[in-house]
Amino acid sequence: MQVNNRLFEIVYLLMQKKKITAKELADKFEVSTRTIYRDIEALSMANIPIYTNKGKKGGIGLLDEYVLNKTILSEEEQNQILFALQGMEKVSYKEKDVLGKLSVLFNKKIDDWIKIDFSNWGKDSEQEEKFELIKIAILNKRKIEFIYYNSNGNETKRVVEPLQIWFKEKSWYLISYCKLKEDYRIFKIPRIKEIKILEEHFERDIPKENKEEKYNFKNILLELEISKEMAYRVYDEFESNEITKKEDGNFIVKVKYPENDWVYGYILSFGEYIKVLSPDKLKNIIKDKLEKTLKNYL
Question: Which one of 23, 67, 146, 276 counts the least CB within 10 Å of its CB?
């Protein structure tokens, strides 16, 4: 356990139990009692009112009514930390314990002011497990192995160094260094299957340069005409500065999206209520897909 984490845990335990012995702390954190006493000295130097009593009923404790905000963080800083953790709790699934501990330390009651759920209906457990494994691998710098299906449905086994989870254009992606390609790659997380954390560690960090340029995640400008019957989707899914309303009630939408299989499916999801005006390349791709779909019904 890192020193800063151990110091935090010591303060939390003292606030819960009021008093604990150095030996109990040493056993819990698997360090020597000498290390625990050094930790107590460090906490005292940080102006945390910690004390030690010798004797049969002695131990290490905190002054009564101590809360963390009296010595370290302002009221505003406490709120910002707790609000951020509430948001993280909704997407990383394992932050509830940390949120609870900090709310005790700050002596605050936290209102449930935000709810965020990016999971698909009916698939929560599978997605939670996948995200949790990826998060553990990233934080511990461990390589992972998985089966990946590309946009054409082709299956490959990949071993990668996971660097960052990225939410972009309504989808989750994993930014990583791929051993097969010997380069940085983006993998769409829903297409990752049978993920395993490997024993092998890595030291690589995420590049500092612009991610979209580094990973060839380039956008193209689309011009779309969407029928007035889809007004609810237009206003739900596009920014106001991307929308122009025509006299007949239809909409012209100009938006930048990545040119990939996702955008083809997204356009097709509007069915008969959308028309690609530009670019011509995309217009032809959509036309070809519609013709192939039509053949399934002849």
Answer: 23
- Averaged over 260-275, what is the pLDDT? 88
Please tell me which residue, 73 or 13, carries the higher pLDDT value. Answer: 13
Sheet holding 183-188, edge to edge: 183-188, 171-178, 155-168, 142-149, 192-201
Q: Give the residue among 137, 114, 124 at the shortest CA–CA distance from 93.
A: 124
Amino acid identity for residue 264 in this structure:
Y
The backbone torsions φ and ψ at residue 34, rounded to the nearest 5 degrees and listed phi first, read -60, -40
Rounded to an integer, what distance in angstroms lies between the CA atom of residue 293 and that of residue 288? 9
pLDDT of residue 160: 96
Q: How far is CA 21 from the centre of its chain?
A: 38
Question: β-strand 183-188 against 59-62: which pairing, if any?
Answer: unpaired
CA distance 253 to 198: 45
Residue 94 has what pLDDT? 47
Q: pTM for the whole thing?
A: 0.48
CA–CA separation, 250 and 255 (whole Å): 16
Residue bearing the bigger pLDDT, 63 or 174: 174
Distance CA 222, CA 49 (A): 61
Tokens of 114: 């935000």
Which value, in Å, is the radius of gyration of the alpha carbons in the chain?
27
SS3 75: helix
Identify the band that residue 156 occupies on the pLDDT scale cut at 50, 70 and 90.
very high
Give the single-character DSSP code of 51.
Answer: E
Encode pLDDT of 42-66 as tens digits: 877 766 778 887 766 678 887 765 5
> Distance between CA 30 and CA 33 in Å, rounded?
9
Q: Which residues contact 285 (CB under 8 A, 6 or more apart)?
A: 264
Q: How many other C-beta atoms are found inside a 10 Å radius of the C-beta of residue 273? A: 15
